[in-house]
Recover the amino acids of this structure.
């Protein structure tokens, strides 16, 4: 199953400065303005390598600039590879759902396997443009700057107990970011510990939580190296952050849907059409709408809230799950039972006429983690309506992936996002 191995991590030296000013959020959520602020904090911020320009595209020049910057930082001693191979235990401490939570895993190399082998499983669809951008960057730099976030089952905590014990000492790096998330990393180069973890991971499947584009890029990069370069081996592996599914610190936030640009939108007509499938509670205020949504989640009901402006929140609860089996007979029960599948199939596609290609291109449908942003778009008359969703459960993610299927795009939002810059993997010297 999963084949993991240690690596000589490329890390910042003291010459670079404080870690909090060197790391950055995932590149795809960094705006141009935020990118500039990061560089102003420290000229060696990893964003200069991970996002060499604010307009990623087919032009290779930005990627070559990133490669030149990487060489310069290594030559100047700003970045240095560890002398020993190791794994890197990584912990995030944060607040969510009114609680203080911690999630701890480890970063290692993982052998990249095609999805059809059933070793590493995806759960969401991807976009080709993002994969082209990441591939160009890897071709130019030969480096993994960030990690793919993956989950594995560890019901007896056999792996977690090892990494917990190995991280009892003070961390090698620790800082708090702008969202008050504390990031800690421990370097573990003890061969016995590494071997013990690798052996216990050998019978496990991995479920990608975040980083589908980067994983598919790793597969494409491996093929590129085999076809165009003399070197092989190192390109067969990609860096991953591996976390056990039983970790009680895992937090998944919902991604809300904003519908805009429909030629005609009539609230009464929409409700009449929805009545075939849903129990409808109209004209709620925000508090009652969100309370109803939370109660539905606790009761295992399929539900979401439609907001149409003027403080009108409408709670929609699915009457019969059997309708999803009728409409999606070739899909698994796991996929049919997702809130996002219900919303996309019964309302966005059948009632609004927004097909899958439209969704992929985000013509009439956009996404946000922020409920306030979604509501503001409607109140500002920049959108027809929005849908507030409950979060996808971790076990639902596992079940969909295990069934060999993929959720609609933006079905999950694991929080917090892994920081970029604590450790990197230079694939070739």
């Amino acid at each position: 199953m999963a084949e993991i191995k240690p690596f000589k991590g490329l890390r910042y030296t003291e010459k670079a400065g404080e870690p909090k000013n060197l790391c950055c959020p995932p590149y795809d959520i960094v705006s141009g303005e935020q990118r500039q602020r990061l560089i102003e904090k420290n000229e060696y911020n990893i964003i200069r390598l991970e996002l060499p320009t604010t307009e990623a595209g087919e032009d290779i020049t930005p990627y070559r600039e990133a490669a030149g910057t990487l060489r310069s930082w290594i030559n100047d001693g700003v970045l240095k590879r560890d002398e020993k191979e190791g794994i890197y235990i990584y912990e995030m401490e944060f607040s969510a759902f009114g609680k203080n939570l911690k999630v701890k895993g480890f970063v290692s190399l993982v052998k990249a396997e095609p999805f059809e082998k059933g070793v590493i499983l995806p759960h969401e669809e991807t976009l080709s443009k993002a994969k082209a951008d990441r591939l160009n960057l890897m071709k130019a730099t030969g480096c993994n700057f960030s990690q793919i976030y993956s989950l594995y089952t560890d019901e007896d905590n056999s792996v977690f107990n090892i990494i917990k014990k190995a991280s009892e000492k003070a961390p090698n790096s620790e800082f708090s970011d702008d969202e008050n998330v504390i990031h800690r990393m421990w370097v573990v180069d003890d061969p016995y510990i590494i071997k013990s973890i690798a052996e216990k991971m050998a019978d496990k499947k991995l479920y990608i939580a975040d980083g589908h584009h980067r994983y598919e890029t790793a597969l494409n990069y491996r093929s590129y190296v085999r076809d165009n370069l003399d070197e092989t081996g190192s390109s067969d592996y990609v860096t991953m952050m591996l976390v056990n599914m039983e970790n009680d610190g895992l937090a998944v936030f919902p991604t809300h849907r904003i519908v805009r640009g429909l030629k005609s939108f009539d609230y009464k007509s929409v409700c009449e059409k929805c009545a075939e499938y849903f129990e409808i509670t109209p004209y709620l205020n925000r508090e009652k709408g969100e309370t109803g949504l939370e109660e539905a989640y606790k009761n295992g009901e399929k539900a979401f809230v439609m907001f149409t402006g003027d403080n009108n929140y409408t709670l929609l609860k699915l009457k019969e799950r059997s309708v999803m089996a009728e409409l999606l007979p070739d899909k698994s029960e796991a996929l049919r039972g997702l809130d996002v599948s219900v919303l996309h199939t019964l309302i966005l596609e059948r009632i609004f006429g927004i097909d899958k290609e439209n969704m992929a291109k985000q013509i009439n449908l956009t996404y946000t983690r922020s409920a306030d942003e979604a509501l503001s778009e409607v109140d500002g008359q920049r959108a027809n309506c929005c849908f507030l969703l409950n979060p996808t459960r971790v076990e639902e993610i596992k079940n969909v992936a295990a069934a060999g299927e993929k959720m609609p795009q933006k079905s999950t939002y694991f929080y917090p996002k892994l920081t970029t810059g604590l450790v990197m993997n230079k694939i070739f010297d």
Summary: The mean pLDDT is 93. Residues 297 and 390 are 7 Å apart (CA to CA).
